[in-house]
Amino acid sequence: MKHTPMKHTKTMLAATVLAVLATNLSAQTIGPGGESATPSAQVTVPDDMVAQVRAKGLSAAFLWHAQADFTVAVTQGATDEFSRLGIEVVAETNAEFDAGKQRSDLETVMAKQPDIILSLPLDPVTSAAAFAEARDSGVSITFLSNVPNGYEHGRDYAAIVTDDLFQMGKQAADALAAAMGETGTVGWIYHDAEFYVTNQRDNAFKTTIKNDYHNMSIVAEQGIADPARAEDIANAMLLQNPDLGGIYVTWAGPAEGVLAALRANGNKTTKLVTLDLSEPIALDMVRGGNVVAIIGDEAYELSRAMAASAVLHLMKQDVPPFIVAPALTVTADTVIEGWKRSLNVDAPASLSAN
């Protein structure tokens, strides 16, 4: 999922999630308040309800956090579901990862009186006030990956929808293990911040290596907060562990720095796995470089579930509090179809040419 973590996006609920992970290593994805996950496929507006929804003449708005391939995909998935239900999209905004701008966007959008809002709240504290007008006006709100502080499911919002975060980390471990013949040493570069999305993914990778691959060991660990430091971190890790068999990197941005370090060291043997689709990372993979897999999400399906949950809530139907879309392992052999399945767009031409 391309909701790249930043310093001001830290959630105060991360400690709850990490505590649950620490005691539940069997683990599955949990919500920011410890909620159990419901697969997105189980959240649908049935055909026999479509006419009732259409008769209401509803409208919806998207308040996104950024402009990227991910948000293009989630916009399309939700738009297609709203089209099926006769719901007009009256606004789409881009907060550019600025919580203040997101609040201003909300004020502008509320003038259009939407019945539904889909959004990723950028900061749990400031978002609590920012979304208050929409909440108090009876707007059906579904949140992407995060929730404002103090908001209660059912009363204040329809649902939280995100990726199957534990599966993303687990599939990264499985893919790296397969590439390494299930043996050898591993470096773990994790997100050094309280952000429950990356925290779950990172810890799921570590848990899976520890529990499932007894001939593999994580011998080097380093947190990263600033993606610009990734190359330096990787250089230090490789200097101390020149025979490192594989490296996990928390998401694709810093993975590009790690890949640069591997190339600068003339290292063609250390395997690399990361999360979230990236053309430079995928290009190395299809050319037979260090990258062995990228773990993505089904962004289009995620947003279909967002739209469906908001509509079901508006129709006074029961909606589970925390919904997850499937994780997806993309390899050199599956990059074309994987890109399409994840983002609902064709893969970049550079990947098709290799």
Describe, in short, the structure shown.
This protein has 354 residues and is of the alpha/beta class. It has helices at 14-23, 50-55, 69-84, 99-110, 124-130, 132-136, 165-179, 196-212, 230-240, 252-264, 279-286, 299-314, 335-343, 349-352, and strands at 38-39, 59-64, 88-94, 116-119, 140-144, 159-163, 184-191, 216-224, 246-249, 271-275, 291-297, 322-325, 327-330. It has 14 helices and 13 strands.
Explain what the structure shows.
- Helices cover 42% and strands 20% of the residues.
- With 354 residues, it is an alpha/beta fold.
- It has two domains: 7-155 and 299-323, Rossmann fold (3-Layer(aba) Sandwich); 165-297 and 330-352, Response regulator (Rossmann fold, 3-Layer(aba) Sandwich), CATH 3.40.50.
- The chain has a seven-stranded parallel beta sheet, with helices on both faces. A six-stranded mixed beta sheet has the order 8-7-9-10-11-13, sandwiched between helices.
- Strand 10, helix 11 (279-286) and strand 11 form a beta-alpha-beta unit.
Which percent range fits the helix content? Answer: 40-55%
- Text of the CATH class of the largest domain: Alpha Beta
The dominant shape is elongated
The proportion of strand residues reads 15-25%
Assign the CATH topology of the largest domain. Rossmann fold
List the helices and strands in order: HEHEHEHEHHEEHEHEHEHEHEHEEHH
Work out the count of structural domains: 2
- Cα-to-Cα separation, first versus last residue: 25 Å
Radius of gyration: 20 Å
* Average pLDDT level: 91
